[in-house]
Amino acid sequence: MSKNNTFDVIIIGAGPSGIFCAYELIRKKPELKVLMIEKGRPIEKRVCPKRTTRVCVGCKPCSITTGFAGAGAFSDGKLSLSPDVGGNLPEILGYDETAELLKESDDIYLKFGADQNVYGIDKQAEIEEIRRKAINANLKLIECPIRHLGTEEGYKIYTRLQEHLLSQGIVMEFNTMVKDIIIEGDTVKGVVTDRDEAYFAPEVVAAIGREGSDWFSHVCGDHHIETQVGTVDIGVRVEVRDEVMRFLNENLYEAKLVYYTPTFDDKVRTFCTNPSGEVATEYYENGLAVVNGHAYKSKEYKTNNTNFALLVSKNFTRPFNEPIEYGKHIAQLSNMLCGGRIMVQTFGDFQRGRRTTEERLCRNNLIPTLKDAVPGDLSLVFPYRIMTDIKEMILALDKVTPGIASDETLLYGVEVKFYSNKVVVDRDFKTSIHGLRAIGDGASVTRGLQQASANGISAARSILKRM
After folding, report:
1. Is 302 exposed, middle or buried (0-12, 13-18, 19+ CB in 10 A)?
2. What are the pLDDT digits (tens) for 298-320?
3. Does residue 297 have a pLDDT over 90?
4. What is the DSSP letter of 6?
5. Strand order from edge to edge, sheet including 9-12
6. pLDDT digits (tens, 9 = 90+) for 155-207
7. Residue 413: which of 367, 368, 362 has the closest Cα?
8. Which of 219, 339, 217, 332 has the alpha carbon at shortest distance from 284?
9. Is residue 408 over pLDDT 60?
10. What is the pLDDT confidence band of residue 59, given thresholds at 50, 70 and 90?
11. Which strand ranges, in their side-by-side order, compose the sheet holding 305-315?
12. What is the mean predicted confidence (pLDDT) over 439-457?
């Protein structure tokens, strides 16, 4: 690091939104001094011991959720190519501008090695049949072309992006936590790290992902940055045999279905489908274990099962303003019952209100891909309302793809998507603090790789316009 700690732009976080912001800044103005500060490790040093030992050793910070490329480095790597999916950019920028930004970010992924194939654009007759079944079940099918990177290929693409940014002069500080944002009056001045080192810039971009959403919520509270009470998505990861999902998988890859439950009128959605994939564990601060899933591109790593998330969107009203803590509390209940691991229950036991046992799980035809999951009872974790929402969604999905509501279907809990209290931003992603912009999933602006990447490009252009 140069002794000169003054930069033109400081980006907090090296997830997709931060990466694409840096990429666009340096592409348009190579002479800019840009600093990226990342809590985790460079991508080549992101190694999770659990992948070989099957035991979490509590790495700090966790290499699955932090580091260059954020949680996206080890995700299934699905790029949603429609403005209808993945965040709030259309509300901020308009539908057409968002669509153009998605295309531009997609072109960058292609430039760095993404698969040319796109799912969901050439099977109209089949998609119409899926939509017909969805309508009959009161489900809404959101059509969205998908480009699938694959877990291992996504890692390679982000590795190339890291090498490119470094070669263009982007300064990256890894294993460094931003302790606070320096604000004087109503203007940002820079940041201070956990090493008590200060860096200064007239433009600071908070590009923290979901892992940093809790930190950013507290920063917003401490500095009176304007926010609105946000959303937390809570639910389960469902696992079935590939045969049950084959028609949806082959024609859409990821069927995005939304349901408003008859009992409570709550919104439940499918998310992150992984054909022939594996259920996985993610770890957040203080060892909080939540469930996720991924799928590899290579045939040698494929399984016989498909997994996907069912998420109930919970919106809160004041005076309650801690949706992240609410989500953590539910996940902690599951962790408490399972010794810090993930709980699994068959749908048959879930409906009957009884705990799944090792014995019943062993005689199940469906073999769990998360080998250290603990058989248990999700009713001891979820509120009754969320239990009801999940049950009603699964029964509705069974009308679209019969077999989902089988007694043997596996439900893993808890899956939680953390978003900061929604930061109030304008169309340039400026917050109520002059010079401070908030982008990406952690700011509750986006909810996926592609919109986060597009968000980074847009924020960079706003910075350049101001300059």
Report:
1. middle
2. 889 899 999 999 999 988 877 88
3. no
4. B
5. 171-173, 34-37, 9-12, 203-206, 436-438
6. 999 999 999 999 999 999 999 999 999 999 999 999 999 999 999 999 999 99
7. 368
8. 332
9. yes
10. confident
11. 139-142, 256-260, 267-274, 305-315, 231-241, 410-417, 343-346, 374-375
12. 93
Please name the amino acid found at residue 431. T
The structure tokens listed for 438 are 């908030």
Amino acid at 353: G
CA gap 145, 169 in Å, rounded? 34
Least confident span in 116-120, 198-202, 342-346: 116-120
Structure-block tokens of residue 187: 């203007």
Please report, in angstroms and rounded to a whole number, the separation of the first and last CA atoms in the chain.
25
Query: How far, in Å, CA of 399 to CA of 257, rounded?
Result: 12
Q: Are the CB atoms for 444 and 232 separated by under 8 Å?
A: no
- SS3 string, 255-321, reads CEEEEECCCCCCEEEEEEEECCCEEEEEEEHHHEEEEEEECCCCHHHCCCEEEEEEEEEEECCCCCC
Prior bond of 319 cis (ω within 30°): yes
Rounded distance between C-alpha atoms, residue 117 and residue 120, angstroms? 10
